[in-house]
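Please fill in the sequence for the structure shown.

STRUCTURE ENCODING:
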């Protein structure tokens, strides 16, 4: 296959050629295939010397590489390609900056992703240019300045109309927290600030970690904090500072992190022969600082606030002399032993053994055609009522040779909700009696359910781009999140099918990988049998 060429013509919303637009071609890993090319006075950019498969083409105004918009995709294996791209209209809005309760422009003020065109310190007015891509009705925008918390706002077409009144942007002074770390020489740390929300839960206040001092006397400084209760946690050890209140009006807050009173609790989960102990976990009660980091790794149905074990059942976790914890063994099929399945510890300790034993189980035959990946989660919820308002317990079923089974439940009569995560819709079984030993449901009636079918119509000569499609159930779980969801990334097909949706209401997103949404979020209602078709002209 010889080198390919992509020709892109860029015009404004009136159809006039746009010069100085930066056109980029990238592969499916979002890596540039060659250097970007700017459009000339005729609005045309020609990218040559291209090899590979499906190429995503994007366009950005000169000087704003982060504001790229998807122009289309070209399958280079089919030959050269051409695209027409109409840039969204440039709108201009006026912002009135209110800092410290009065009009004024903080130094080094920044606006993103809109672009500042002018600033007037006398009137504290800032003019920004922005675009609304596709069917978007607003642009989420952040206004930042050193020493102030970020102000979030939405730029709309109404704000971009000539003569529109300025939008007041309130800039609030932010506070800072200085942390002194007491540790042995060479101790590695990863510090993260956490803020306590109104419900008393601790949430990360920043995605960034501090590994090295950034203030005087070897301290760690955390800036841009709004007023509230904070602590700083070390992601390496799980240790945290005392709780302090940050108030910008009172100056820098201070806290101390003492790592000299922390160590490791190490041990092994043991169980009967013939069971896969690598599927076990250790539930940690009383160590909220420990499990926050790996919560995203817990497969649906497994207990929150738990850590994974190794293939041989071995585990290790950081603990403190100041905070006792209770460790409890967990497994999809086995149950913690009445003696030895749970242990309270008051600090670092070696040689811990947590014991699992056989208990009551429930199993069934998997439907024909199920081809879940090895790590695919089979999630089971046990409800005490038909309306599924009272959750009894949550489980993960273990799969082997066409069968699935789970344990760890209290015997009784339940409504079972089973989700195979993708190929089939969730199944609800009422009045299932789970006994003291083994309950076999046999073959259970899973169905394919409804699907969302996205049909892409690219412009002539272009290929369908790779897209993502997601559907989140409006029914909520105990923690307030969506009860379940389905998501996939396409491979450049013209019709993309997201299957396995039961009856209910869903929020659906469709977007181009690397370039954002192709339509506003759409709320749809499905009956669990018929499909929903979404057509998108590109």
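FILLED IN BY: designer on duty
SEQUENCE:
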């Amino acid at each position: 296959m010889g080198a390919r060429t992509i020709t892109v013509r860029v015009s404004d919303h009136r159809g006039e050629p746009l010069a100085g637009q930066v056109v980029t071609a990238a592969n499916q890993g979002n890596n540039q295939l060659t250097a970007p090319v700017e459009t000339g006075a005729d609005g045309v950019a020609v990218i040559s010397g291209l090899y590979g498969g499906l190429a995503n083409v994007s366009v950005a105004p000169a000087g704003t590489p982060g504001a790229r918009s998807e122009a289309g995709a070209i399958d280079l294996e089919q030959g050269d390609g051409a695209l027409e791209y109409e840039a969204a209209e440039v709108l201009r809005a006026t912002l009135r900056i209110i800092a410290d309760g009065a009009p004024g422009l903080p130094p080094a003020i920044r606006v993103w992703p809109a672009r500042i065109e002018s600033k007037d310190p006398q009137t504290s007015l800032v003019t920004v240019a922005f675009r609304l891509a596709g069917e978007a009705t607003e642009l989420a925008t952040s206004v930042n300045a050193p020493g102030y918390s970020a102000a979030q706002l939405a730029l709309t077409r109404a704000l971009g109309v000539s003569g529109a009144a300025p939008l007041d942007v309130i800039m609030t002074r932010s506070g800072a927290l200085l942390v002194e770390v007491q540790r042995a020489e060479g101790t590695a740390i990863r510090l993260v600030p956490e803020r306590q929300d109104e419900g008393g839960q601790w949430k990360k206040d920043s995605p960034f970690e501090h590994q090295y001092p950034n203030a005087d006397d070897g301290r760690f400084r955390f800036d841009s904090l709004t007023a509230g209760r904070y602590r700083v946690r070390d992601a390496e050890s799980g240790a945290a500072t005392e709780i302090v209140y940050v108030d910008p009006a009172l100056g820098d807050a201070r806290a101390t992190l003492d790592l000299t009173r922390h160590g490791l609790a190490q041990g092994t989960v043991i169980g009967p022969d013939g069971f896969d102990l690598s599927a076990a976990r250790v539930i940690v009660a009383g160590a909220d600082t420990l499990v926050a980091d790996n919560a995203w790794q817990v497969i649906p149905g497994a207990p929150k606030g738990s850590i994974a074990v190794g293939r041989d059942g071995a585990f290790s976790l950081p603990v403190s002399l100041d905070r006792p914890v209770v460790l409890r063994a967990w497994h999809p099929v086995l149950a913690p032993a009445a003696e030895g399945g749970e242990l309270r510890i008051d600090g670092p300790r070696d040689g811990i053994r947590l014991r699992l034993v056989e208990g009551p189980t429930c199993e069934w035959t998997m439907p024909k055609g199920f081809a879940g990946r090895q790590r695919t989660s089979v999630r089971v919820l046990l409800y005490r009522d038909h309306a599924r308002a009272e959750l009894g317990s949550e489980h993960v079923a273990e799969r082997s040779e066409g069968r699935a089974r789970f344990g760890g439940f209290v015997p009784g009569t339940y409504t079972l909700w089973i989700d195979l995560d993708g190929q089939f819709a969730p199944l609800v079984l009422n009045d299932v009696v789970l006994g003291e030993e083994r309950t076999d449901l046999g073959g259970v009636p899973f169905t394919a359910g409804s699907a969302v079918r996205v049909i892409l119509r690219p412009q002539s000569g272009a290929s369908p781009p790779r897209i993502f499609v997601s559907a989140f159930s409006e029914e909520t779980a105990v923690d307030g999140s969506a009860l379940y969801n389905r998501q996939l990334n396409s491979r450049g097909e013209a019709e993309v099918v997201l299957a396995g949706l039961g009856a209910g209401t869903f929020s659906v997103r469709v977007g181009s990988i690397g370039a954002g949404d192709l339509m506003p979020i759409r709320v749809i209602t499905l009956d669990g049998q018929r499909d929903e078709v979404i057509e998108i002209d590109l």
